[in-house]
Amino acid sequence: TYILGIETSCDDTGAAVVDNGGNILGEALNSQTDIHVQLGGIIPPVARDLHRQNIDDVVKLAMDRAKLKYEELNAIAVTVKPGLALSLAVGINYAKDLALKFRKPLIPIHHMEAHALTPRIETRIDFPYLVLLASGGHCLLAAAQGVDQFKLIGKGQDNSPGEAFDKIARRLKLITLPGMQGLSGGAAIEQLAQRGDPKSIEFPNSLSKHPNCNFSFAGLQTQANYFIAEIEKQNDIKGPEVIPGVADFCASFQYAITRHICQRVQRGLIYSDMKELITTDKKQMVLSGGVGSNMFVRRSLEKVCKHYNFELVCPPPKLCTDNGVMIAWNGMERLNANCGVLEDESAIKLVDLEHRAPLGMDITQ
Ligand code: ATP
Ligand code: FE
Q1: Which pLDDT score, from 0 to 100, does residue 127 have?
Q2: Do residues 287 and 319 make contact, with C-beta atoms less than 8 angstroms apart?
Q3: Vertex 251, ends 39 and 309: CA angle to 5°?
Q4: Closest Cα partner for 120 from 358, 329, 339, 275?
Q5: What family name appears in the similarity comment (predicted)?
Q6: What parts of the chain have a pLDDT lower than 50?
Q7: Residue 341: per-residue pLDDT
Q8: pLDDT tens for residues 147-191?
Q9: Number of the ligand 1 atom closest to the C-alpha atom of 82
Q10: Which residue's CA is the nearest one to ligand 1's atom 12?
Q11: What angle do CA 109, 113, 119 make, to 5 degrees?
């Protein structure tokens, strides 16, 4: 069985073909990060235009690399939510046209479900498992109980960890430093943090009086902005110069975000034990989403998991950020589990069918 997956929910145009053994036969990705960083953030119509410009090449490249003809595909999977409406529409329309033209079933994919199931493509992970999705738009802790069954344990109450990284990277003007071009805010901070002292600046804890597993990153972001303004004032910085001790700052900020994530997840691990959410012999926790590619976050979370007898499983970094592979793989999982597959002639009206075949994901609610 071969499935083509198409992803355009945010600022990456991705496509990939996978088979039912989880082999990636061909993949292609066009990242817009560079352009959006220069513009100071994602502007939806700009993202849409770039998707439009690139989608044909990206899909064709993935198919060429897979050495497959469209006729040989068994289905086409495409991200339908959540994401930027203008960006999503480009992928959905493209996939719909292909599905119609080649009379293939169209499988609607929930982007966060795709992040959550990604590691199953190459590692043996059985349901149920815990999953932390830390990305550019979300922070979600859930028990994954099946391909389309997720029980939410905790969620971000304000902005996401990825957004906090991106905003602070911009505020720190990291893009002006050598070697930082083309990197996302999170990746830039991680790189600088490697030569900084994570204990040099102390950030306050968030939600410490809230005995649940929710997350909050707005306070850390505000505090970081305040600290940066203070340092700039002390050093009389008004122009494009970067603050002194920027590596220490990045290390401390990354540490604060990571500590918060770990504290909330720790409670989640205890809670999952109490409620016997994870019944498998080998207890596993998945970390996915763009922030999951951060090695400091991974190493820290691994320690917490180990303490509670959980094994931490992370997709390879490039499968943590957005990509076509995870969409194709989620299509395969849905096809195998027989859930929510749209048959060909009905594929024309994706929106109607979405109601008949609900995506079943409650973890973003
Ligand atoms: P969502 O998946 O919630 O819809 P998204 O698809 O935009 O949002 P992803 O592509 O999964 O998000 O992740 C992008 C985010 O990950 C960005 O905010 C980026 O800064 C962050 N990120 C990428 N690499 C790293 C890293 N090494 N360390 C920390 N954050 C990172
Ligand atoms: Fe994502």
Answers
A1: 95
A2: no
A3: 115
A4: 329
A5: Belongs to the KAE1 / TsaD family.
A6: 342-365
A7: 52
A8: 888 888 888 999 999 999 999 999 999 999 999 988 999 999 999
A9: 4
A10: 136
A11: 115
Tell me how crowded residue 75 is: count the other CB atoms within 10 A of its CB: 24
Q: Which of 215, 117, 102, 211 is nearest to 160 (CA)?
A: 215
CA–CA distance, 83 with 136 (Å, rounded to integer): 10
pLDDT of 349: 31
Return the half-sphere exposure (C-beta side, CA atoms, 13 A cut-off) of residue 285. Answer: 29
Given ligand 1 and candidates 81, 217, 321, which is best to mutate, with the most ligand atoms within 8 Å of its CB? 321
Question: What ipTM was estimated for this complex?
Answer: 0.99
Q: Which atom of ligand 1 is nearest to the CA of 169?
A: 20
Helices assigned H by DSSP within the chain: 33-39, 44-66, 85-102, 111-117, 161-171, 185-193, 218-234, 246-274, 295-307, 317-320, 324-337, 350-356
- Cα separations (Å) of 249 from 220, 230, 305? 13, 12, 27
Which amino acid type is present at position 177? L
Q: What is the CA radius of gyration of the chain?
A: 21
Question: Which residue's alpha carbon is at the smallest distance from atom 29 of ligand 1?
Answer: 186
Token pair, residue 270, equals: 């205890």
Express each pLDDT in 30-80 by its tens digit.
999 889 988 888 999 999 999 999 999 999 999 999 999 999 999 999 999
Identify the nearest ligand to the CA of 253 by its number: 1
The secondary structure of residue 171, as a DSSP letter, is H
Burial pattern 260-277, b for ≥16 Cβ within 10 A else e, equals bbbbbbbbbbebbeeeeb
Report the pocket of ligand 1 as residue ranges, CB < 6 Å. 9-10, 83, 111, 115, 135-138, 162-163, 165-166, 184-187, 190, 289-291, 293-294, 321-322
* Ligand 1 centroid, distance to 252 Cα (angstroms): 19
Residues 6+ apart with CB under 8 A from 57: 28, 30
Please give the structure tokens belonging to residue 26.
């061909």
